[in-house]
Amino acid sequence: MEGERRAPRARSCGLPAGGAPAPSPGVDAPVPGRSGPPALPRAEVLDLDEDEDDLEVFSKDASLMDMNSFSPMMPTSPLSMINQVKFEDEPDLKDLFITVDEPESHVTTIETFITYRIITKTSRGEFDSSEFEVRRRYQDFLWLKGKLEEAHPTLIIPPLPEKFIVKGMVERFNDDFIETRRKALHKFLNRIADHPTLTFNEDFKVFLTAQAWELSSHKKQGPGLLSRMGQTVRAVAMSMRGVKSRPEEFMEMNNFIEIFSQKINLIDKISQRIYKEEREYSDEMKEYGPIHVLWSASEEDLVDTLKGVASCIDKCCKATEKRMSGLSEALLPVVHEYVLYSEMLMGVMKRRDQIQAELDSKVEALTYKKADTDLLTEEIGKLEDKVECANNALKADWERWKHNMQNDIKSAFTDMAEENIHYYEQCLATWESFLASQTDLHMEETSEDKPESH
Amino acid sequence: MTENNFWLKKIEISVSEAEKRTGRNAMNMQETYTAYLIETRSVDHTDGQSVLTDSLWRRYSEFELLRNYLLVYYPHVVVPPLPEKRAEFVWHKLSADNMDPDFVERRRIGLENFLLRVASHPILCRDKIFYLFLTQEGNWKETVNETGFQLKADSRLKALNATFRVKNPDKRFTELKHYSDELQSVISHLLRVRARVADRLYGVYKVHGNYGRVFSEWSAIEKEMGDGLQSAGHHMDVYASSIDDILEDEEHYADQLKEYLFYAEALRAVCRKHELMQYDLEMAAQDLASKKQQCEELATGTVRTFSLKGMTTKLFGQETPEQREARIKVLEEQINEGEQQLKSKNLEGREFVKNAWADIERFKEQKNHDLKEALISYAVMQISMCKKGIQVWTNAKECFSKM
């Protein structure tokens, strides 16, 4: 396995020709999700399999089933897409600022839940005012996500933090959990705001501005439950048929998503594991330093040296804590968001496939049926448009998403490297100053004329 | 290097090799053991050239025999300890197996260190058995056993008894005993926690190695990011594998501490000897006093103390004056002997205390010097580890920023 890893990659302008463990085209590869890592030959590299249970995470993302094929506003002209991509890259032109803060607990007779304050500042004309403050709970965010997916089935909607984490949670609403969630919700809304299409979504606007009762009444509008269910059943039935004629670029995309999903999940696990190991290391270090102080009590001649070592160890321990907090702020949330994104992406691929499957089935029907050809032809026409829109939307959004992903990953890992460099630099300085003090002392001891200045 | 009356020139000792052997043991059963090659070189002080004078193989049990002999014949000396028999304070990746090559290597160094300490000790280096250990391969065991040192050894039980019952030991030895207990306790604790810290550190480094593997696999599907990911992954591998050498070095530091952990036992042995001698002295003095009293009682006819003789006299009638005279004579002889013995025991005791204390002072200086050096070398190790870390992560950061 060692040899394989460092084999030179075939570099061409497209995806590499060989070496990538790609499933053969045309075959619907099994959902990767959390496939276990391949067997590690060397005992030194810690096996992650055992941790899978610890990191069991359930994302109750019901919206995957909600396949509403309405697709109102969607820019079809590539030109308009490019303009909007530029718009997002220039932060000076940003005209929608959102913050999520102040989690508050609400207790009713039925339930306890948390709301978050959402402050929106904007200079856009279509907003009635320039500043809004509302309170929303997690359910509301779920609703918003569902609506966005309904409206834009083949756009890459930002992921929401999980509903709950099964293992490792003592109580549902401990402070760390709430804070992590708050940050993720903040990210969620800002990503929508930065998205060239989603930022203009009506439901999004309502979410940011409506008072509680207004939101409730707005939620009740939209396609009824029954019709939604009908759509869902059809969608599930179609997805069972598999994809026969997925275009080449979407095959590539699917392949990428599968592998990316595998890898980002592994990286998530690895990063969590590193955090855990660092925490345990720091705990042991806390005990290690003081023993030297204890020892110095029985050694007259070694007091300075022993206390010096103890102080160095304590300082390094603090530096480790700082490194850990850097990790948990910069790296872990980003990696985890992309784990959720990878699940999102698979949903998007499915939805695109379904839209195409609809078209394919109608085309098939046309081939066999003799009657209703006119109706069918008309329907096929509409569906062809629909497929083209969906595909274009996805393609454009895909490029945008990849670009963002690269930047996010790059900056998260660069930050992590920076944290580590800083950690080692701090420790180095501590030990070097200790060493200097010891050699100085030694020189003072050996030369009797020099007075002791310590 | 050392000079003494057995060595005409300065010598260098090294335990240069270790070899696995199989042989038959005392019960004629097959066994595997490790043998160590001891080479002795004599050094010409004019040109510093060394010539191999002796070379033989010894196993650990022979080292033990040598040390036990030295303990018996030089009870006033803080006898250098041997490296541990079995691996202790082991952190999980380190093998606790005596046959493990890393353990054998560390033991080889420890045995060499032991021989060097003995050879540089002003008293021990002159010992004949030690000389023969380095020069006479065959028959050495028999020679040692012929000294009958095992018989001369103080029984543990006697020593324990003396420790509890001694009334007036030299205060310095009592303090020394406390010190050695504290030293043992604190170094054990330190070594235990160090092993746990090593374990955790190992974990942190090794998990990063997983990044290397995953980055490499991921790089296969990335166009712009691919190169950066792959080379960053390589640095993660380097980082993960760097911990092995780092912890190997730390093991040597731990061995230095362990030596002083075992030295604590050697200190206690000297204290025990003093207590034994002191107790012996006190008992002899007590015995003498009681005999004198008996004598006096017989002479004056008063019975102040209960005695069996007194009882039987009462029951069976008084003894004749001749018998009494005879008894007094015997007692007087015993008293004389006793007084001589007491005198010589006193002298012995004082000699012992003087010599022991001189060696203890020597030991203290050695200990302060060695421990300070060890702690400083620990700092140096940490510095080296930090520098490596900075380099690897700087490289990785560069790769990440190029992605």
TrEMBL record, chain A:
It comes from the Eukaryota. Pfam families: PX (PF00787). The keyword Manganese does not apply. It is a peripheral membrane protein. SUPFAM superfamilies: BAR/IMD domain-like (SSF103657), PX domain (SSF64268). Residues 1-41 are annotated as: Disordered. CDD domains: BAR_SNX7, PX_SNX7. Its main location: membrane. Residues 18-33 have a biased composition (Low complexity). The keyword Transport applies. Keywords: Protein transport, Transport. It is found in: Early endosome membrane. Residues 94-215 form the PX domain. Belongs to the sorting nexin family. Heterodimer; heterodimerizes with SNX4. This is Sorting nexin-7 isoform X5. The gene is SNX7.
From TrEMBL, chain B:
PROSITE patterns: PX. Keywords: Protein transport, Transport. The keyword Lyase does not apply. It comes from the Eukaryota. Residues 14-140 form the PX domain. Pfam families: PX. InterPro entries: AH/BAR_dom_sf, PX_dom, PX_dom_sf, PX_SNX4, SNX4, SNX4_BAR. Belongs to the sorting nexin family. This is Sorting nexin-4 isoform X2. It comes from Vulpes vulpes. The lineage of its organism: Eukaryota, Metazoa, Chordata, Craniata, Vertebrata. The gene is SNX4.
